Amino acid sequence: MKLFYFLNLIFIIAFISEIKSIQEIDSTFEPIRDTRFLVFTRFNPTIGQVVDLTNMNTVINSNYDVNRPTRFIIHGQFGSDQSELNILVTAAYLRSSDVNVIVVDWSVGADTINYVAARNRVRPVGAVVATFIDNLHAANLIDFSRIVIVSHSLGGHVGGFVGKNVRRGRINTIFGLNPAGPLFDVNNPADRLDSTDAEYVEVIHTESGTFGIGTPIGHANFYINGGTNQPGCFTNTCDHNRSFELFAESLNSNQLLGRQCSNIDEMNRNECNGPVHSLGGEPTNAQINLRGIFRLATASSSPFGLGPPV
């Protein structure tokens, strides 16, 4: 099954390579009009309150509280505010901490089988989210030091463009959950998620062969079971989505622990002998300025954490 997905992706990329430009944005998607923001708190944990990018009164009149930290969640291709990513991570955050969760819904642009079109919308959506954050800050409704962005797949790069485009401060933490690989050049950090996009960037690699980037592009890079072929998974999609399942678990568990590796080759050989650190979590590893490459083994089903590695 995984071989089928891989061969299919090779065909798609070969076709895409004939396209002269990937810069056009389909006129059916208007980033400012079609990007939605939904606020979830412990007062409304399952039904989001839609707030307006330009009208801060809609934020003030919601359950959003300026005294709480704020966590943004950004989905990838085929995602929406109802995606499993948003449901799992929102619930995990509100169980662990009293925070504002803001779900970014760009499904009008992401819910398409046309990967090129969805990929082209990453940069403008990031710019819209950055504008929203700057507007919140201008209205004294947010503190940059208390912002965390959790972003999956194509959304991982949306998170990067949020960090690149904010003007009134610097994002504290961005989590890239198996950031998308196809059509993102690892040698061009200006066009993808990069460690320079926030004070701290942590990347969780669960499917580095087809859908995700395998290069360590964050300050801290956790390779789960070597970065691909997750136990209990039989498709690349399952491997890909395991990243947000693990992140959600990390918010209420300290059992997802990886061992630091000297380099990527040591990680690939499973010969890491460095210190042990946990991935994800609340608060984030920004507080300890974590750096490096880590390999982490998991169980095949939830709970995934196995505790300290042997």
Automatic annotation (TrEMBL):
It is found in: Secreted. The keyword Secreted applies. Residues 25-304 form the Lipase domain. Residues 1-21 form the signal peptide. GO terms for biological process: lipid catabolic process. InterPro entries: AB_hydrolase_fold (IPR029058), Lipase (IPR013818), Lipase_N (IPR033906), TAG_lipase (IPR000734). GO terms for molecular function: lipase activity; serine hydrolase activity. Keywords: Secreted, Signal. One of its GO terms (cellular component) is extracellular space. Belongs to the AB hydrolase superfamily. Lipase family. This is CLUMA_CG004689, isoform A. It comes from Clunio marinus. The gene is similar to Lipase member H.
